[in-house]
Amino acid sequence: MVKPISKEFNTMKKTAKEIVIESLLTEEYLDISSLNKKIKENCSSTLGYHSVYKAVKQLVEDNVIVKCQEGYLLSDEWVMENLSFLEKLKEHINETKGLNHEACDFSVFEFENIKKLNDFLRKVEKEHMPVFNKDKKSTIIRVVHHCYNYLLQPALELAHARKLKDHNIDLKILCHGDTPLDKWTKDAMEKFGAVMKTGSNAGGITSKIIYEDFVVEIFFDKKFLEILNDVYSKAESVNDLDPSSLFEKLINTNYKVNVILYKNKDIVKNLRDRAKGFFE
């Protein structure tokens, strides 16, 4: 089992091992001499050659770095374990502090069905933005393959759209599909305050929910999309729709839904600006 370094790099006084690791973060290979030279040039530390050598030897024994013919480099195993630990920390913060915590700039989630996904999305909306603050004008942009939620729970979807509108929130929807069911959904959603564009040529690969300060990107399993596309492509009108059959197919199929939540301001602005362009 690889042991992560216990102290952070940003402490005022770094250990020799921490300095060595930090020096290898931007290098593919360094031998002892090159490592010692880099430390002297870039660090205020007074580490001597012997201290660097001793630190390197200990890090090799701990499987934090590895030695090859070209020099020393960080262990892939150690890197992956630290990344895994970081994700666990984010999960802990998500559960205890909420997704709006400043540490959650980038988070990854996985769900085994769309019900758990939808519960998560409502939780995000409730916890992490002033969606229902009437004093603040806001816009939510959904980029979807199809608005499948309207097929499965139309009353809840329309009530949510109305609630957003009543609280000064503009809901805009970019729908990739342009089938009769998509157009039927558009007519219903727009009666309740949303603005929806079908055949938008957006949302064909992933779906997104774009808020003012963060983005939720959803990666649906291929099997899920095949079921969805089959229903939408075969129904020539709403009379051909059997919601119970669709729901049964979805709950009896094993699939995963992966989600990435972005809070990086540049990413959010870029996606919002591009999405807004489809409505101009």
Brief overview:
The chain has 280 residues and is an alpha+beta fold. It contains 11 helices and 9 strands. The chain starts with 15 loop residues before the first helix and ends with a helix.
Q: What would you say this structure looks like, in words?
A:
The protein contains eleven helices and nine strands. The protein is of the alpha+beta class and 280 residues long. The protein has a seven-stranded mixed sheet, with helices on both faces. Strand 7 and strand 8 form a beta hairpin. The longest helix is centred in the N-terminal third of the chain and has 21 residues. The termini are far apart.
Show the helix and strand layout.
Layout: H1 16-24, H2 32-42, H3 49-61, E1 65-68, E2 71-74, H4 76-96, E3 106-111, H5 114-127, E4 138-144, H6 148-152, H7 154-166, E5 169-175, H8 180-191, E6 195-197, E7 207-210, E8 215-220, H9 222-234, H10 243-251, E9 257-262, H11 265-277
Parallel strand pairs: 4-5, 5-6
Antiparallel strand pairs: 1-2, 3-9, 4-7, 7-8, 8-9
